[in-house]
């Protein structure tokens, strides 16, 4: 059954077609120029400026098709293939920063800067840690209140994400391995880890265009959460780490999902009712279940 993949429509689909077509043209030009060059060498060893250079394995297979071609047309084919290949390479290098194939350059630093902490370990927020310490120990020193604009819990827009998350978004080649193993996506939920990365990259590019056109202080009244990624997508994640494990270049969609979900819960207070019950039980009973800590092992006594 083919899954619905709306994130691949429009430019991503066109980009996915442009790349292989360009590669086919470049390789055809490369093999043609080599085969024509070898044929010229075979037919006329001293034909300037062509000199004996040896054989190329794959190109030599095409030489029989060029044997009956005139020298004039062989030179034309060789020169056309050479210029087409060189100009095609330069054109491709200019297109590269605008396509998903930018991962050719960024996948190496993305892998180098892979998070080395235990898989699934969440990043603690100092503000929350300080509050919890005060709750557990009222005599603990009160941390100094930072001056300036208060920080944000989680992430609402791409500007709230870390540079590592942005690098991961630009390192994504849209292969879909993460989405193919996502249990939420497999069970027809709206979440697609690939879409999370693509939406993050699209939002960063939109912010860049706004800065170029209107300056750094321009606000377009849009955000990554809501305008690009919905609450339904974020809340469908089970934080199972399957998408992180499946990525061949160590991209971490879960990091972005967790930060967006933190904002939903801690800033917007829009967590599902079932989650609120779990939060309340954890706060009061130190466990997700609605049992007093003193009664936690009562079931064992009842069995005996």
What are the SSEs and their pairings?
Layout: H1 11-43, H2 57-60, H3 71-95, H4 103-112, H5 126-136, H6 163-171, H7 177-181, H8 183-186, H9 193-214, H10 224-227, H11 231-235, H12 242-246, H13 253-266, H14 273-285, H15 298-303
Helix pairs in contact: 1-3, 4-6, 6-9, 9-13
Notable features of this structure?
15 helices, mainly alpha, 304 residues, 0% strand
Summarize the structure.
This protein has 304 residues and is an all-alpha fold.
Mean pLDDT metric: 83
Shape: elongated
**Low-confidence parts, pLDDT < 50 over ≥5 residues?**
none
* SSE arrangement, N to C: HHHHHHHHHHHHHHH
Distance between the ends: 51 Å
Largest sheet: none
Radius of gyration: 29 Å
**Counting H and I runs of at least 4 residues, what is the number of helices?**
15
Structure description:
The protein has 304 residues and is mainly α. Helix content is 56%, strand content 0%. The chain is built from 15 helices and no strands. The protein is elongated. The model has no long low-confidence stretch (mean pLDDT 83).
């Amino acid at each position: 059954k083919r899954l619905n993949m709306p994130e691949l429509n429009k430019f991503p689909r066109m980009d996915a077609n442009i790349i292989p077509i360009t590669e086919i043209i470049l390789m055809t030009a490369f093999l043609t120029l080599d085969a024509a060059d070898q044929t010229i060498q075979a037919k006329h060893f001293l034909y300037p400026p062509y000199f004996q250079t040896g054989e190329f394995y794959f190109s030599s297979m095409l030489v029989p098709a060029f044997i009956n071609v005139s020298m004039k047309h062989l030179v034309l084919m060789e020169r056309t293939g050479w210029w087409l290949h060189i100009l095609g390479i330069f054109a491709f290098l200019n297109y590269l920063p605008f396509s998903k194939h930018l991962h050719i350059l960024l996948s190496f630093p993305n892998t180098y800067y892979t998070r080395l902490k235990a898989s699934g370990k969440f990043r603690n927020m100092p503000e929350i840690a300080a509050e919890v310490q005060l709750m557990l120990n009222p005599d603990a020193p009160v941390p100094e209140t930072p001056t300036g604009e208060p920080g944000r819990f989680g992430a609402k827009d791409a500007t709230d994400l870390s540079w590592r998350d942005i690098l991961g978004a630009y390192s994504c080649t849209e292969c879909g391995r993460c989405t193919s193993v996502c249990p939420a996506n497999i069970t027809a939920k709206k979440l697609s880890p690939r879409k999370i990365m693509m939406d993050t990259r699209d939002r960063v590019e939109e912010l860049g265009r706004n800065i170029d056109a209107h300056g750094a202080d321009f606000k377009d009244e849009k955000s990554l959460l809501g305008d690009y990624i919905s609450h339904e997508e974020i809340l469908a994640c089970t934080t199972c780490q399957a998408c992180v494990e499946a990525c061949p270049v160590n991209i971490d969609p879960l990091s972005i999902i967790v930060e967006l979900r933190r904002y939903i819960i801690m800033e917007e207070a829009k967590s599902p009712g079932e989650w609120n019950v779990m939060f309340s039980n954890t706060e009061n009973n130190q466990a997700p279940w609605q049992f007093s800590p003193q009664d936690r092992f009562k079931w064992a006594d009842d069995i005996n």
